[in-house]
Amino acid sequence: MKDFLQIENLTKSYNKETILNRINCSIAKGEFIVLLGPSGCGKSTLLNCITGLIPFETGTISINGKEMNPISPANRNIAMVFQSYALYPNMNVRKNISFGMEIRKTPKAVIDQKVEQVAELLKIRDHLQKKPAHLSGGQRQRVAIARALVRKPDIFLFDEPLSNLDAKLRVNMRTELKKLHKKLAATIIYVTHDQIEALTLANRIAVMLNGEIVQFDTPNEIYHHPINTFVAKFIGTPVINILPATLVRKDGTWKLKIYPLQKNTAKSSHAADDFITLPIPTYLSEHDKKLEQIVKEHDGKVLLGIRPEAISYATQLPNDAVPATISAEVDVVVPSGADTFIVCRVLGHEITARAHSKAKLATPSSTQTDKTNFITLDIDLNQALLFNSHTENRIL
Ligand SMILES: Nc1ncnc2c1ncn2[C@@H]1O[C@H](COP(=O)(O)OP(=O)(O)O)[C@@H](O)[C@H]1O
Ligand SMILES: [Mg+2]
Known about the structure:
Low-confidence stretches: none
Strand order of the largest sheet: 6-7-8-3-9-10
CATH class of the largest domain: Alpha Beta
Number of helices: 10
Structural class: alpha+beta
Largest sheet: 6 strands, mixed
Bound molecules: adenosine-5'-diphosphate, magnesium ion
Strand content: 25-35%
Helix content: 25-40%
């Protein structure tokens, strides 16, 4: 069912300040949806509107075709797992998991069977007699998930459930959550401000900013076709390079010019008429009208977005690349496992490029001469994005 959970025109404010602004989204049964956005953008508020724990002014929420607005939180079949785990400290793990079922007067045999089942699934069987205080962070998080699982809810809501765990455990739990989702075919809405978590977990990501969903699409689409520079910069590490550029048409073909960074104070080693010209892939040239409009409205000024992996040092470009070479002055070299990132300067603009970890590169010492710090980088313009320099929305 395509619209298992449907949110229409949801608006919520606190003290006349709009916190959620006309949220619309449809979620299919079995989807793993991640709400991603900076702190304070309204993610937790949206989850709590879905649970029914906080009221909102306008809009409707429906699950399985049934409007939830008049239904109390207790009667919505939704389970929520919080960052703080919210376990009962005086109850052991078994009791923490079974308590809700006891309240609902579930027969003991059924409770025992369900506890066994989820304990097995989440590998906490050996801890059933322990109190939460005697568990590690990861184990506590598993108990919180187990408690949600026994309810067999229509929808699981997770609010930053892994942010209290150390980095390694977080990666493990991410994989486990993914396995769990596959096994149970559960419908999950998962809140995080961590873009890696979003990319690795989600079927679709809703990127939020200032109480609005700015883009709702697959991780791949969001990474490769971000709707604006905010989304482009929020997703991907190291962060995407964004350079001011000017569109020009020369002999019938479009090109991009990059001019030196204008700095009044720092001395520039580049002459004012120094610039780089980059080719534009033919599929971009096909959008002649759009590009002409940019020239007319903004003197051709655009923002060129290009991810570090599309600027390579001593690495072969992909077969379909639209190549260009540039000279860059190395600032620092940042090894990071399989890849090494090179932070460098091109006409004064800082950019990050990627090299293989085996590339012979090191951060230049301050005694080295300028000349030896220059390297040649290969850019694949086929992977370039162009943004409107005023609205910062993606043009192409
Ligand atoms: N009970 C409340 N009263 C007033 N403002 C609130 C309340 N709860 C949240 N807010 C405000 O709403 C905004 C969104 O908060 P929240 O949904 O918690 O953001 P996120 O989970 O994305 O970090 C924040 O500016 C926050 O200060
Ligand atoms: Mg929050």
